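Hi all, posting the design record for the shared folder.

TITLE: backbone redesign
STEP: 1 of 1
STRUCTURE INPUT:
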């Protein structure tokens, strides 16, 4: 009975950021929130109740965190430091062991409490939505340039009812189970072939219009430190790296930019017939993508079952490169 009362009290306290909380209720809220967040992140296909529980636990924790900061005598600004991903764990853990201050800090004015409470509620709604409606992903590779760059942080809608040609999707590799992101070019029943780098879809060449050269700085990119490939061969570090670009337009009218470096063996392929319930995917950076042109036994993805699709990528939230032009940018 006492446990139920304590849980009820903890939930009620989370709506009152003016009070104080000792180490015990804060520690309980910390452990519960950590458990549900780890469960949700570790299992992207976790049921909706996991994410709802995660959102409730997060809200309770934020309330207890604010109260514990006051009990420890810390300023309210530490609240925002403590919720920063990864870095914020340090002050959170310190608060687990810090003793109560002799003179706990007083509560803030009502207006500031309402703003903080509203931001906390918004954060919890975002947590609840993850897995149920969307999932975030880091882009580590260069295979989807220029639509997606290494270091981009994207949101993929997880309620994909139907996949269309031209969609950029996140999917599980049919063999390794690793997450890949590519563009859907063909679906079940379609025939697709590449000749001199041009896509032939159901016997008709997909329109390609020359675009301006794509220029980037020769430097290591993304979390894997990938070195970009340049048209004309290797260039010095920090020098301009050029690639040819084309605007490819599918029969549906969907257009996007593809890149070309050099003539490669995968610029010319056999004619593939996509099995029903599968899709044929390509990377926009055509000379640097392990995709459906390559068999799974040699590192490609082959035909990908539609059931492996985890989400459709529509928006870039931001980029670790600091490029502000990629902030809340729609993916073509």
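Okay, here is what came back for every position:
SEQUENCE:
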């Amino acid at each position: 009975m006492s446990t139920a009362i304590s849980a009820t009290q903890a939930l009620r306290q989370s709506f009152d950021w003016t009070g104080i909380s000792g180490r015990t209720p804060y520690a309980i809220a910390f452990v519960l929130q950590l458990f549900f967040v780890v469960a949700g992140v570790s299992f992207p296909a976790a049921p909706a109740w996991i994410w709802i529980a995660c959102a409730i636990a997060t809200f309770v924790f934020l309330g207890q965190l604010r109260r514990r900061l006051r009990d420890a005598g810390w300023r309210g600004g530490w609240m925002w430091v403590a919720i920063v991903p990864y870095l914020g764990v340090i002050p959170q853990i310190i608060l687990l062991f810090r003793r109560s201050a002799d003179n706990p800090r007083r509560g803030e004015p009502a207006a500031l409490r309402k703003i903080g409470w509203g931001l906390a509620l918004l954060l919890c709604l975002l947590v609840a939505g993850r897995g149920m409606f969307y999932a975030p992903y880091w882009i580590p590779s260069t295979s989807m340039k220029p639509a997606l760059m290494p270091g981009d942080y994207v949101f993929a809608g997880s309620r994909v009812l139907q996949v269309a040609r031209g969609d950029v999707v996140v999917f599980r590799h049919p063999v390794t189970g690793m997450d890949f992101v590519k563009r859907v070019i063909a679906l079940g029943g379609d025939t697709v072939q590449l000749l001199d780098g041009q896509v032939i879809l159901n016997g008709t060449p997909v329109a390609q219009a020359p675009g301006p050269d794509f220029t980037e700085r020769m430097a290591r990119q993304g979390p894997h430190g990938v070195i970009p490939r340049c048209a004309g061969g290797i260039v010095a570090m920090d020098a301009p790296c050029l690639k040819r670009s084309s605007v490819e337009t599918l029969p549906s009218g969907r257009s996007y930019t593809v890149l070309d470096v050099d003539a490669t063996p995968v610029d010319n392929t056999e004619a593939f017939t996509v099995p029903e319930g599968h899709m044929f995917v390509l990377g926009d950076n055509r000379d640097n993508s392990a995709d459906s042109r390559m068999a799974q036994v040699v590192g490609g993805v082959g035909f990908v079952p539609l059931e492996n699709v985890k989400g459709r990528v529509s928006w870039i939230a931001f980029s670790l490169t600091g490029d502000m032009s990629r902030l809340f940018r729609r993916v073509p």
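COMMENT: The first strand starts at residue 134 and ends at 138.
Let me know if anyone wants the other runs.
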